[in-house]
Amino acid sequence: MSESTITAFNDLAALEAAVGAGPFRSPWVSVTQAMIDEFAQVTGDRQWIHLDVERAKRESPYGTTIAHGFLTLSLLSQMMAGAVAFPNAKMGVNYGFERVRFIAPVPAGAEIQASFMLQEVKPADPGVQCAWAVEVRSRDGAKPALAAVWLSRIVM
Question: Which of 37, 50, 98, 128 is most exposed by smallest CB count within 10 Å?
Fold first, then answer.
């Protein structure tokens, strides 16, 4: 799948047919120091590894500040919206995660991209529950920054 293509699922049959298809890739997202600073302010997670640029240059094994793992996780909604769409859905909700791992750091200034593989669609009340295998990579990263199984519920 092209990184600039949004795949639309217009009905339940199209969604069910996509199990095992993909990956559906998001556009690249820049993770700026300003985003990291704002996330720290909102969440109260003000650890120096995220905020103190000069100290991170001196003391961090990464040589720079890094994004909070939860910031990377919170960007999944934005990245999924750039990869897949449900134009006829009445609603979609985040149902949680079966598994989340923060595997590699996301340095300030990095560009990240998510890929989504639809693993399962099953009946739920209401609608259907989808399980998405998600991987987030930095453009220059040797390994994924994040791997997860994300659950969503969609009512068509």
Answer: 98
Domain count, the chain: 1
How many Cα atoms sit within 13 Å of 25 on the Cβ side?
13
| Measured distance CA(27)–CA(4) in Å, rounded | 6
pLDDT in tens, 62-97: 999 999 999 999 999 999 999 999 999 999 999 999
Closest by CA position to 101, among listed 140, 55, 134? 134
pTM, 2 dp: 0.93
Total residues found in the chain within this entry: 156
- Does residue 60 lie in a domain region? no
Distance CA 76, CA 105 (A): 16
Which residues, in sequence order, are bridge partners of residue 67? none
Q: Supply the range of the domain harboring residue 12.
A: 7-31+68-155
**13-43 pLDDT tens trace:** 999 999 999 899 999 999 999 999 999 999 9
Structure letter (DSSP) for residue 51: H
